[in-house]
Design brief:
Number of strands: 5
Largest sheet: 5 strands, antiparallel
Oligomer: single chain
CATH class of the largest domain: Alpha Beta
Shape: elongated
Number of helices: 6
CATH topology of the largest domain: Alpha-Beta Plaits
Number of domains: 2
Order of helices and strands: HEHEHEHEEHH
Strand order of the largest sheet: 2-3-1-4-5
Structural class: alpha+beta
Distance between the termini: 97 Å
CATH architecture of the largest domain: 2-Layer Sandwich
Strand content: 15-25%
């Protein structure tokens, strides 16, 4: 399907907008893919707060160049995943899609404008999702404070236990 210059310009602007607003970009090469598989993958990507698009490699190469990103992974037909919020969750979706799949092949991606290999994407996929990381950080921050409160309250608790035991021991 041939595009007019105006349509190409609009696509290029859209690609640049996606690159600008995403924290990371992951690239899948695909073969003989059905619409059902695309829709399933898009739904999973949408759940992570990202977007998944089939792109024209020549226009995406121009958009990447305009964004100052070197590209060597645009081979074959490409699916681009734009991680807008949760990078590890998006990497996990892409990693799961390529496991035992003859349709998808992980080509790599870009994290904060720097190229990353498929192995780096898989390492990102092994990271816990953002809510879990936040909970762990909050727990680490909260632990010293709760231990301090417990330490300060312990002498008063001990005194209360002694007084209660004494009150129960002495007849009324």
């Amino acid at each position: 399907m041939a595009f007019t210059k105006q349509q190409k310009r609009a696509l290029l602007n859209q690609y640049e907008k996606w690159l600008k607003h995403s924290q990371a970009v992951f690239v899948l090469e695909y073969h003989k893919m059905s619409m059902k598989e695309v829709d399933t993958l898009r739904a999973k990507v949408r759940d992570t707060g990202g977007e998944l698009h089939v792109v024209k490699n020549t226009l995406m190469a121009i958009a990447l160049k305009n964004a100052g990103i070197e590209t060597k992974i645009l081979v074959g037909t490409s699916l681009f995943g734009f991680a807008i919020h949760d990078v590890p969750a998006m990497a996990k979706v892409f990693g799961d899609a390529t496991k035992n799949s003859e349709i998808f092949k992980l080509r790599g991606g870009y994290l904060s404008g720097q190229p990353i290999t498929p192995e780096n994407v898989k390492a990102l996929a092994d990271m816990p999702p953002l809510p879990v990381l936040r909970a762990r950080l909050l727990g680490m921050i909260n632990t010293p404070a709760s231990q301090l409160v417990r330490t300060l309250a312990e002498p008063a608790c001990q005194m209360a236990y002694v007084m209660k035991a004494y009150a129960e021991k002495v007849p009324a």
